[in-house]
Amino acid sequence: MPVATRPETGAGDAAVRAGDGAHAGVGERRRASRSLWAACEALLGGSVDPKALERALNSLREAFDCDAVALNTRTEAGTIEPWLSCGPWKGAPGDLRDCVSVPLFRGSERVGTLDLKARPGQRWRPSQLGLVRTASGALGAAVGARLELERLRHQPGRDPVTGLPDSVGFHTRLTEELARSRRHGLPLGAVALDLDHFGALNSRYGRPIGDAVLAETALLLKLQVRESDVLARVDGDRFVVILPETDAPAALRCAERLQRSVEEHRFARIGRLSASAGVASGPRDGVEALELITQLDQALSVAKKSGRRRVTLTDPAHTH
User: Fold this and answer.
1) In this structure, are strands 68-74 and 109-117 parallel, antiparallel, or unpaired?
2) Of 147, 132, 126, 142, nearest to 60 (Cα)?
3) What is the per-residue pLDDT for 29?
């Protein structure tokens, strides 16, 4: 007669506990990643909704499982000054906590610091510190892009809504980059992107909200391009990117990435938006500015006439 026996404790139970811990760790990381992404989205939309910055800090507190968060930013004078904070930074006498201060960089430029204060009796776990190190790159990029564009809005040759180069600045840089590409025999890519139904959005929500959406879009796109690329706002809701040393297939991939970044973002007060994009590349589509712009306009027109929410690279034979 078979005898039922109780499983031995030890290795089996340890394996079960390890498995449970692994599942819990994965769930914790997923929740933290969602909170971190929500914080970055809120930072990008803070100029639209004053409560967005408060949401950003609360999302960071949740992501890092800590009691208080502070963001400090670099001023034009080069000093690091307080910008935003939430949580009980002022504690009672004798209330000693673990604190962490992490520098935030955008590329090689230091743009601020992230300060965190642990919960009472909490010691920083390796998983928390790992997330902080990983998150500092995304936060540095978001904060740096936001501060840069805000600083540039009032400078000559810049669009006052987004801080990006305006139409004149775009044409100047395009002429320069085309000359460089001809001189060195290098390709030059370009992407034009429009927000779909932006005119209807302006009519429904008003010009101030429309301008805020444009500023938010500029930040989103800025985070997706290289330092060597030139992102400009040339007219209405049209953004153009000059991509040095980029052929047509690579420019197409960049356009798809830019379109996806817009459609995956939740805009403050508006929600989701879609975008259409056209792609051109020299010398494939021409070696002069007018030729490249003509081909770029045609590609974008095809994308919009084909139902919008798509990226188009047309055959240069259609225009030459």
Assistant:
1) antiparallel
2) 132
3) 58
pLDDT value of position 234 = 92
Predicted local confidence at residue 204, as pLDDT: 93
In order of 35, 99, 152, 208, 224, the CA distances from 49 in angstroms are 18, 30, 21, 12, 23
Do 167-318 and 17-152 have the same topology in CATH?
no
Kindly give the parts of the chain with pLDDT less than 50.
Answer: 1-24, 48, 318-320
What are the residue ranges spanned by the domains of the chain? 17-152, 167-318
Exposed/middle/buried for residue 285 (C-beta within 10 Å: 0-12, 13-18, 19+): buried
Q: Which two tokens stand for residue 293?
A: 């712009």
Short-list 264, 161, 266, 269, CA closest to 205: 269
Q: Which pLDDT value is given to residue 238?
A: 95
54: Cα within 13 Å, side-chain hemisphere: 3
Per-residue pLDDT reduced to its tens digit, 104-141 = 998 888 989 999 999 988 888 888 888 888 888 888 88
Give the model's pLDDT for residue 144. Answer: 82
How high is the pLDDT of residue 16? Answer: 37
Tokens of 239: 């953004």
Q: 167-318 belongs to which CATH class?
A: alpha beta
Cβ neighbours of residue 7 under 8 Å, at least 6 residues apart? Answer: none
Full DSSP string of 173-234: HHHHHHHHHHHHT--EEEEEEEETTHHHHHHHH-HHHHHHHHHHHHHHHHTTS-TTSEEEEE
Q: 10 Å Cβ neighbour count for 242? A: 24
Around Cβ 127, how many Cβ atoms within 10 Å? 13
The topology (CATH level 3) of 17-152 is Beta-Lactamase (3.30.450)
Give the global pTM.
Answer: 0.70
